[in-house]
């Protein structure tokens, strides 16, 4: 050891967060008595400037060469204090943090036990920091290419922002076209812009952008690497149409005799076996659906091929697997619409004229299944429509959370109905949540348009009439909670405001990208308030509804935020790499290669001529797996040496 | 605050919080319960308002509506906030019974007395409990017997319903099941009196049974009442009584699948089935009784328009069986109409309370020649 070890210990009150439970003075006095501790102090907020200055001053005045801060989780403030000690002239790794908040004051109300535990955690940190060695932080370059997964409005927005700054984007979309849910909407609230009118220019821009490589009908299969240096393996599914030849003339779709339910119109209309999902699709290149194509099913037909003048149909096409190198990833995989079938009392699937909100969007749309006419299944115009809120949302039997958009789209439907029909409109709501800019004003506007608002969660939709007025109608039953009476409202059509839920395969996506899901299935951001688009994996960001239900303005804002985060990293051009990596003592290494197999980052290679393994420090993330597994004890995990860990354990047990 | 506490005693409110816990605090007043509650088909019952009164401590304990809930659990199953409405109603009744702040309906008081005196709601002597099985060659349960068959009090004592217990015993005999019964030493399971607010009566009935079962060495109990099923399964464990409990319809499927019970005849009838709330919504057992019925040769099972999770209660749960329900307000009358609509000639039940209520409805509506009420056990007995 160089000079004599001189440690400073700093106990934080964290306002009342720690000080209300832990006897700070006792811990300070205790710390003062520990070996090599030169000074121990307490302060209200150690993370504040005066707190940090206190440490810096001590380092200079008292010649400290190690520091321990007992405060919160290192997640937030370890970088703060490392920077502080570095500014005072000591290596940032000669610092240790003891978590006496999350691990101590927040988990008990017992003052005595909390104080005792705080002492032990401080003792462990002091013993550990004694053995800390200075480490050098390395920098590696950031690949300026970005992968964006999901081509809805979030992915489109993020892709354009990044590509406009002349950095390459790979935009991967599972479906044959980009556009996501937004392109299915008729109008957007509260401005009532035509959804397609504001989205298609952006879609076209994506399709034509020199810096965007659009891969539709494609899925990411594997991700490896780390921030700044990821590698993605992408499967481009066979379209059976040669993109370089197709002129988007549409003849193939006209001539194809085979039909299937249109996914885009939610089964309310048909599409052909060779199809583009909708007229403005980007790219406007059809795909052949093998499930319905007679050639694939029976070996005959090939009508599309016969009529294609440019010979773009290619039945022999196979999936392509493409590997790309990228520095950052933005995940914008969106949401699924809740299926209300399990709520049997609402009759979805049983009654023709009970439809979901998303289906109603298509019904309203000029190019939808009814050419924009709001009509019942029998093509007659409804005289009354009930809109049921919170179907699958705010309901612990399905999703406990509020889906945030339903109140507003319900109001939008009311307006569209009033605009296009003479129907009475009933809004059956629990609470109207109109929180965004211009939203309350929209609510007021709809009140003026003569919509009836009934406060009460609908209990049942039935076709069992009990009087003449109800015959042939759907009767919406429940309580009007403001009147305190039960009600039966006979209507012709019922619209269910269905919840937004996490994608059914969100779990697999989370695993693929090493990010986490919350209990509700949505991806978790790094910090709910202060880091809303980053994830716990560096270099991977989330935006839009895959992170939680949100409306278009919030989605676009988040997508722009994620793009900005990526651009910041590209602009900096380098990332700091963890210094706490593993090193192999080649003298001790037996060449068994257990570590090579275990390393999740493929950071260890085998040096054939020397018959030893070696760690590539640029790839090593410091996870410690190899060090724990090495049978010869040849691997040292810097900053987690056996000496340091044993000292820490001794400290806790002391 | 301009509103005033109707029951001003703070002790009462404290007691309410103590027995009711925080169950009602979760409610966000959406009114789904009121809209779901079958009472509102026949008269007004503002369940949501009652919960809100409980939230504010403004419950009127003299209000007759506190005795209205039939405990069918339809509202609980749909409630978006997981408010245990049935438990809340039970707890409010408990406040009335134990704190004496309101009037207990006379009929309930009488039943409670019977429970306390002889351990059954009908006031029949303890000694005659096993008499229903006198001529059936049924043995008394002793240690080592595989199964205790436990018929409900109504199936034990009511001469017109005893046929269900007898059918069950005949089936078990026919399938060569090693079973026995207990007599004077056991009492009613206590389900209805607990939901009627007499917690102490329930506790003593339950403890008595747990002791009797334990003493006799009982492990496995077959029941023919969903009320016994629920109580033994869900409520006895908290008092230390842990037994394997099987409803007869489950057991019948087991016997049929194992080939121990063979059908020799056909029953060429159209049958509809009443989901007992205690079996369906309380225990999620919708398929088993239907499976038993469907396995009967010749039988055609028809469903009423409300069935399974959305089934309509007969009106007999939560102590309502012992209380008078006005003509025109009886759920079993409404339900019988639904059954008749299916064209079935048999309304099959798996619960003695359903049976009592429906037999009454058949009688008062004079439909005895169109439809009959039969327990699943009786139907199975006919074809073996």
What does this structure look like?
The complex is a heterodimer of chains A (654) and B (384). Chain A is an alpha/beta fold and 654 residues long. Chain A is 29% helix and 23% strand. In chain A, the strands form 12 sheets. Chain A has a 5-stranded parallel β-sheet with strand order 10-7-6-18-29, with helices on one face. In chain A, strands 20-27-21-22-23 form a 5-stranded parallel β-sheet. In chain A, a hairpin with a 4-residue loop joins strand 32 and strand 33. The longest helix of chain A has 21 residues, at 552-572. Chain A starts with 6 loop residues before the first strand and ends with a helix. By secondary structure, chain B is α/β, with parallel strands linked by helices. Chain B folds into 3 domains: 10-99, Orthogonal Bundle (Fumarate Reductase Iron-sulfur Protein, Chain B, domain 2); 106-254, Rossmann fold; 263-382, AF0625-like (Rossmann fold, 3-Layer(aba) Sandwich). In chain B, 42% of the residues lie in helices and 8% in strands. Chain B is built from 16 helices and 9 strands. Chain B has helices spanning 10-20, 32-36, 47-56, 74-78, 85-99, 106-118, 153-157, 162-174, 191-195, 199-216, 226-235, 248-257, 287-295, 331-342, 352-365, 376-382, and strands at 139-140, 147-150, 179-181, 220-223, 244-247, 270-273, 300-302, 346-349, 372-375. In chain B, strands 1-3-2-4-5 form a 5-stranded parallel β-sheet, sandwiched between helices.
């Amino acid at each position: 050891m160089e000079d004599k070890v001189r440690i400073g210990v700093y106990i934080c009150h964290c306002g009342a967060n720690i000080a209300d439970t832990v006897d700070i003075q006792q811990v300070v006095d205790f710390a003062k008595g520990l070996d090599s501790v030169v000074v121990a102090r307490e302060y209200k907020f150690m993370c504040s400037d005066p707190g940090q200055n206190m440490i810096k001053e001590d380092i200079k005045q008292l010649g400290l060469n190690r520091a321990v801060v007992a405060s919160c989780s290192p997640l937030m403030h370890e970088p703060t204090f490392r920077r502080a000690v570095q500014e005072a002239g000591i290596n940032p790794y000669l610092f240790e943090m003891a978590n006496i908040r999350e691990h101590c004051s927040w988990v008990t109300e017992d003052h005595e036990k909390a104080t005792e535990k705080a002492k032990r955690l401080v003792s462990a940190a002091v013993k550990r920091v004694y053995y800390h060695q200075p480490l050098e932080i390395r920098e590696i370059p950031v690949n300026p290419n970005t992968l964006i997964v999901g081509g809805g409005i979030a992915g489109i927005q993020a892709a354009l922002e990044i590509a406009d700054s002349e950095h390459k984007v790979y935009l991967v979309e599972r479906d044959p076209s980009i556009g996501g849910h937004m392109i299915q909407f008729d109008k957007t609230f509260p401005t009532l812009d035509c959804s397609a009118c504001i989205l298609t220019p952006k879609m076209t821009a994506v399709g034509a952008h020199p810096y965007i490589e659009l891969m539709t009908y494609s899925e990411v299969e594997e991700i490896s690497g780390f921030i700044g240096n990821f590698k993605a393996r992408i499967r481009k599914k066979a379209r059976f149409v040669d993109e370089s030849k197709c002129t988007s003339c549409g003849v193939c779709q006209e001539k194809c005799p085979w039909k299937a339910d249109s996914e885009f119109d939610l089964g309310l209309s048909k599409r052909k076996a060779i199809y583009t999902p909708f007229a403005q699709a980007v790219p406007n290149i059809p795909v052949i659906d093998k499930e319905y194509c007679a050639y694939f099913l029976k070996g005959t037909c090939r009508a599309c091929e016969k009529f294609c003048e440019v010979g773009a149909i290619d039945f022999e096409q196979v999936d392509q697997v493409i590997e790309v190198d990228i520095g950052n990833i933005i995940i914008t995989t969106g949401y699924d619409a809740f299926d209300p079938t399990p709520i049997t009392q609402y009759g979805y699937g049983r009654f023709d004229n009970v439809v979901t909100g998303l289906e109603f969007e298509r019904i309203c749309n000029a190019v939808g299944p009814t050419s924009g006419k709001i009509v019942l299944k029998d093509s007659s115009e409804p005289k009354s429509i009930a809109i049921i809120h919170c179907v699958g949302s705010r309901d612990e039997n399905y999703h406990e959370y509020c889906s945030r958009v339903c109140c507003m789209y319900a109001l939008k439907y009311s307006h569209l109905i009033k605009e296009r029909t003479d129907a009475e409109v009933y809004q059956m709501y629990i609470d109207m949540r109109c929180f965004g800019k211009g939203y309350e004003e929209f609510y007021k506007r709809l009140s003026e348009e003569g919509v009836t608002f009934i406060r009460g969660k609908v209990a049942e939709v039935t076709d069992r009439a009990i009087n003449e007025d109800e015959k042939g109608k759907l009767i919406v039953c429940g309580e009007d909670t403001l009147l305190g009476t039960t009600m039966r409202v006979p209507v012709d059509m019922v619209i269910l405001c269905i919840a937004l839920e996490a994608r059914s395969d969100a779990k697999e996506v989370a695993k693929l990208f090493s990010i986490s899901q919350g209990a509700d299935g949505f991806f978790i951001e790094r910090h709910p308030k202060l880091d809303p688009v980053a994830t716990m994996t560096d270099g991977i960001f989330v935006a839009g509804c895959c992170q939680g239900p949100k409306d278009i303005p919030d989605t676009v804002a988040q997508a722009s935020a994620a793009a900005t985060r990526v651009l910041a990293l590209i602009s900096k051009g380098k990332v700091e790499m963890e210094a706490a990596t593993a090193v192999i003592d080649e003298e001790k290494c037996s060449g068994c290669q257990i570590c090579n197999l275990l390393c999740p980052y493929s950071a260890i290679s085998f040096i054939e001529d020397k018959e030893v393994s070696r760690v590539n420090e640029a790839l090593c993330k410091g996870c410690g797996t190899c060090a724990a597994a090495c049978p010869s004890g040849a691997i040292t995990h810097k900053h987690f040496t056996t000496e340091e860990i044993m000292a820490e354990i001794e400290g806790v047990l002391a | 605050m301009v509103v005033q506490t109707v029951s001003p005693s703070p002790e009462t409110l404290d007691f309410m919080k103590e027995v009711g816990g925080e169950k009602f605090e979760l409610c966000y007043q959406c009114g789904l319960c009121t809209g779901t509650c079958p009472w509102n088909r026949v008269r007004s019952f503002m369940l949501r308002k009652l919960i809100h009164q409980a939230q504010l401590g403004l419950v009127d304990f003299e209000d007759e509506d506190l005795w209205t809930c039939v405990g069918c659990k339809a509202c609980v199953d749909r409630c978006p906030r997981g408010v245990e409405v049935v438990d809340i109603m039970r707890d409010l009744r408990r406040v009335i019974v134990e704190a004496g702040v309101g009037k207990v309906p006379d009929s309930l008081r009488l039943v409670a007395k019977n429970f306390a005196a002889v351990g059954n709601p009908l006031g029949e002597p303890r000694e005659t409990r096993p008499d229903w099985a006198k001529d059936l060659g049924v043995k008394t349960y002793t240690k080592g017997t595989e199964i205790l068959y436990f018929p409900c009090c109504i199936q034990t004592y009511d001469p017109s319903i005893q046929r269900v217990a007898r059918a069950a015993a005949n089936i078990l005999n026919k399938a060569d099941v090693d079973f026995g019964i207990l007599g004077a030493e056991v009492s009613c399971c206590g389900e209805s009196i607990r939901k009627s607010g007499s917690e102490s009566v329930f506790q003593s009935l339950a403890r008595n049974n747990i002791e009797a079962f334990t003493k006799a060495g009982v492990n496995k109990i077959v029941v023919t009442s969903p009320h016994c099923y629920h109580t033994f399964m869900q409520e006895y464990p908290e008092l230390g009584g842990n037994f394997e409990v099987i409803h007869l319809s489950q057991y019948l499927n087991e016997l049929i699948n194992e080939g121990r019970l063979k059908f020799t005849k056909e029953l060429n009838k159209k049958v509809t089935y009443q989901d007992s709330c205690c079996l369906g919504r309380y225990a999620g057992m919708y398929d088993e009784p239907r499976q038993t019925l469907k396995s009967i040769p010749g039988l055609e099972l028809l469903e009423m328009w409300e069935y399974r999770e959305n089934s309509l209660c007969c009106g007999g749960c939560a102590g309502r069986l012992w209380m008078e329900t006005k003509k025109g307000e009886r759920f079993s009358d409404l339900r019988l109409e639904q059954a008749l609509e299916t064209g079935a000639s048999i309304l099959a039940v798996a619960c003695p309370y359903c049976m009592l209520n429906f037999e009454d409805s058949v009688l008062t509506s004079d439909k005895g020649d169109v439809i009959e009420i039969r327990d699943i056990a009786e139907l199975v007995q006919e074809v073996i």
